[in-house]
Amino acid sequence: MIFFPFTHFNCKTTAFDVIIIGAGASGLIAAIYAARRGRKTAIVDHADQAGRKIRVSGGGHCNITNRRITVDDYFGKDHGFCTYALKQFPPRLVFSMLRNAGIETEEREHGRIFCKNGAGEIVSYLVRAAIDAGVHFFLNTKVSGISYSTSFCVDGHGLLLESSHLLVATGGLARPQIGATAFGYTLAKQFGHTVIPLKPALTGLILSPDDPLLNLQGISLLARLQIKGKYKPVEEPLLFTHQGISGPSVLQISCFWEKEDVIAINFLPSEDLIEQMHKPDNGKLPVKNLVTKFLPERLVKALIPEHLSCRKVAELSRKDRIIIARQVHDYPVAPEDVEGFHRAEVTLGGVSTLEIIPESMESRLKKGLFFCGEVLDITGKLGGYNIHWAFASGYLAGQQL
User: Fold this and answer.
1) Which among 339, 343, 341, 340 is positioned nearest to 206, based on CA atoms?
2) What is the pLDDT of residues 85-141, one digit of tens each?
3) Burial of 290 (C-beta count, 10 Å sphere; 0-12/13-18/19+)
């Protein structure tokens, strides 16, 4: 991949029509569309290469969009804010972009679209498209401050840029190990914006040290999870880790789990264990033998009380059968916390969308200041929704800057 960062000199100010802080998915798309409209556009990023988070997303294959995107797939104080952007940049435009770029995709469960030959392809395409459109890259450039008098002035430790339009596309706090920082939120507050409290999302859950489900790491199975008293259930794979539970089902639940919430887990959503216990052929089996037909032995040992697991199914009372069935189909888990930002896919919370114009991504508080992508209080479910939001909001900002 070839980058063309400017060579710069101290005290020299370079004027642009548009300055974008952040060379991730939203910043790159915004830069492409702004530059294609004839705007002299600059991207500034402290990383030494563009699209670092895209590269590691989706296990290195970038879950780039989802065939079934709706506004209800997003969270935030006002998740309806994303309606206009999603209408302007639906999945078919992502498919069109990928076809034009010659990037092959593969569709997986639940309409999730991945880059077949790796995430590097989409990053290379976006950077190449930006350079072809005339975008100027200032990579490996840490911004020391941004001020405003008659225009925005960006100070990059001797590099001085100025513009009447500034787009904040800095992403969130997720994955600090690849460069995520709080800079975008600090900048938003500098210009009077409200930042909704930030939390890790699309991440695993940590169980207490004495939880029976601890030490089952490596076990993976389809499960149905629901936070008791709120939200609809999520049925996807669950993975046990050394700290607790993870996997797609848990990542989804983490978006709206709060401390003190109890999660009900159905470890066997495809079967009715009561019905299985009523079958004559299963009556002579010890309980553990019956349940291990469907679930891993280590999990069964953790779920079924020892005084019941060795008894024959036919010997069980109605009360005992209900106890066993509840352990399998309605197991209560009270996590201690979510895993931190270092394991999170995205950030929940961000710049309040009540202070942003949804048709342009421009600030209602400061003319010429724009926000897009993860820095805003919009978070998507697992499955390509967040990168699509980055593209959709960046596209909209790029059309308006």
Assistant:
1) 339
2) 999 999 999 999 999 999 999 999 999 999 999 999 999 999 999 999 999 999 999
3) buried
Query: Of 141, 176, 184, which is closest to residue 52 (Cα–Cα)?
Result: 176
CATH topology of domain 13-200+340-400: FAD/NAD(P)-binding domain (3.50.50)
Amino acid at 273: L
Amino acid 8: pLDDT = 42
CB of 376 closer than 8 Å to CB of 353: yes
Tokens, residue 386: 């967040």
| Chain mean position to CA 277 | 41
Q: What share of the chain is helix, strand, coil (3-state, %, to 5)?
A: 35, 25, 40
CA dist., res. 51 & res. 387, Å (int): 11
Q: What contacts 58, CB < 8 A, 6 or more positions away?
A: 64, 114, 115, 119, 384
Collapsed DSSP state (helix, strand, coil) of residue 280: helix
**List of residues 6+ apart from 376 with CB closer than 8 A:** 76, 81, 350, 351, 353, 356, 393
Per-residue pLDDT, 59:
87
**pTM (2 d.p.):** 0.92
What's the order of all strands across the beta sheet hosting 136-138? 136-138, 41-44, 18-21, 166-168, 369-371
CATH class belonging to 205-338: mainly beta
Residue 10 has pLDDT above 90, yes or no: no
- Tell me the pLDDT band of 11, cut-offs 50, 70 and 90: low
Nearest to 396 by CA among 62, 76, 77, 81: 81
Residue 114 amino acid letter: F
Tokens 């100027």 -> residue: 136
pLDDT, the chain, mean? 94
Longest dimension (CA), the chain: 86
Query: Is residue 57 helix, strand or coil?
Result: helix
Relative to beta strand 41-44, strand 195-201 is unpaired
The owner of tokens 């209080």 is: 377
* Per-residue tokens: 80: 């309806």
Per the CB < 8 A criterion, the answer to whether 368 and 396 are in contact is no
Q: What are the residue ranges spanned by the domains of the chain?
A: 13-200+340-400, 205-338
